[in-house]
Design goal:
Layout (H helix, E strand, L loop, with lengths): L13 H9 L6 E2 L16 H13 L12 H12 L8 E6 L1 H16 L5 E5 L3 H9 L4 E5 L1 E2 L4 E2 L1 H8 L7 E5 L12 H14 L2 E6 L8 H12 L5 E6 L12 E6 L6 H15 L6 H10 L2 H33 L6 H4 L4 E3 L4 H11 L1 E2 L5 E3 L8 H13 L1
Parallel strand pairs: 1-12, 3-4, 3-7, 7-8, 8-9
Antiparallel strand pairs: 2-10, 5-6, 9-10, 11-13
The chain binds pyridoxal-5'-phosphate.
């Protein structure tokens, strides 16, 4: 049986990390996988997380199973973190999942189960797993225009033009903030216009929020999502704690389904919990327990928010320094957009040859579509990177 498996090509982002690890050149820079890095190039454990681990260590008396939907305190605090008071709590069914990817997978499962005909609309470009998981599950998919490579900004007219084709009950996926891979985001008026369109078409929004707090702040990053949630009858949300709590490997996230009314809440919750049962039974507990401790404790929450703010400020200042340095070294304003983008990523707009030259000649590892992880340039690494880009563009 197993001989029927075909060789799998390396994952474009994870494969890049392996090439980077094997590279013995000094001064190499990894701008691939989306993890925060400090000035020393490390991805530290947040101090609020370390403290929560101590609390958990002292207070936990059993490792027995919890409910299929996960930890209640975690679910409640995540609902509040993401949605604020945009929607009454009794309309929001939430399950704990293994990371944001687990939430996406479970919500895709729910869509498929309820309406296998529904088309899933994804931004072009989007995070590759949005496409990969849907393809693996055989879901009907279409993409909508999102990014204008020439101006490196959202092509909103083209987006609205494409979304005009959305059918009732189709599902339209949006990035809550910090769009991956482009770093270009919708403004408040654009969120409103998309909401109007989805309401008019009878389609369901599905917001993936994996970087809350990495753009402009916890509330600012959720503002578009919340304004939408306050107006639509139904909405799906996948939230990840991998980045904003630095809990990448602990696999912490949740799937939320906003129901039209509170009467539907229990049935929806139970169905989502059954999906957990069918896929992996119980979501991992450790990281979710830490998030619940942090969000439920005034001091730890304040400490976490301060640390998150520091990470955000680091990325914002790298954005400005990189834009300035590229302008200086390349003698062009074509990279000025980097300072205006938000989140962990921007797409530089370099061609394949330039991306390869950055890797082969300068040991700078950029994803094939020229996406860079901004945080990979902390500790002054934006300067050698800008110099390498200038050399590559001069060839
Ligand atoms: C857009 C987007 N959504 C969701 C995720 C999910 O991350 P995780 O499964 O690690 O929580 C990521 C991670 O890179 C992402 O970039």
């Amino acid at each position: 049986m197993l001989e029927k498996f075909q060789p799998v090509p390396p994952d474009p982002i994870l494969g890049l990390g392996q090439l980077f690890a094997a590279d013995t050149r000094g001064g190499k820079i990894d701008l691939g996988v989306g993890v925060f890095k400090d000035a020393a190039g490390n991805t530290p454990i947040m101090s609020a997380v370390k403290k929560a681990e101590m609390v958990l260590h002292e207070s936990q008396t059993t490792k027995t199973y919890k409910g299929l939907g996960g930890d209640e305190a975690f679910r409640d605090s995540m609902r509040e973190l993401v949605l604020g008071d945009a929607v009454p709590a009794d309309r929001v069914a939430t399950i704990q999942t293994p990371g944001g990817t687990g939430a996406i997978r479970q919500l895709y499962e729910a869509i498929k189960k309820i309406n296998g005909e529904a088309t899933l609309w994804l931004s072009d470009p989007t995070w590759p797993s949005h496409i990969g998981i849907a393809r693996h599950m055989g879901m009907p998919m279409r993409s909508y225009s999102y990014f204008d490579g020439a101006s490196s900004s959202v092509d909103f007219d083209a987006m609205m033009h494409d979304l005009a084709d959305v059918k009732p009950q189709d599902v339209v996926m949006l990035h809550g903030c910090c769009h991956n891979p482009t770093g270009a985001n919708l403004d408040a008026a654009q969120w409103k216009a998309v909401t109007d369109l989805l309401l008019a078409r009878g389609a369901i929004p599905f917001v993936d929020i994996a970087y809350q707090g990495f753009g402009d702040g916890l509330d600012a990053d959720a503002a578009g999502l919340r304004a939408m949630a306050a107006r639509v009858p139904e909405m799906l949300i996948a939230a990840s704690c991998s980045k904003n709590f630095g809990l990448y490997r602990d696999r912490v996230g949740c799937a939320m389904a906003i129901c039209e009314n509170a009467a539907q809440h229990d049935v929806v919750s139970r169905n989502l919990a059954v999906l957990n049962r069918l896929n992996y039974s119980f979501a991992p507990d450790h990281g979710a327990a830490l998030v619940a401790i942090i969000l439920g404790d005034r001091d730890l929450r304040a400490e976490w928010e301060t640390e998150l703010g520091e990470m955000r400020d680091t990325m914002l200042s790298i954005r400005q320094s990189l834009a300035d340095e590229l302008r200086r070294q390349c003698n062009t304003d074509r990279f000025d957009f980097i300072a205006a983008h938000r989140g962990m990523f921007s797409r530089l707009g370099l061609d394949k040859d330039s991306v390869e030259a950055l890797r082969d000649q300068h040991a700078m590892y950029v994803v094939g579509d020229s996406r860079i992880n901004i945080a990979g340039l902390s500790g002054g690494r934006h300067e050698p990177f800008a110099a390498a880009v200038a050399k590559v563009l001069a060839i």
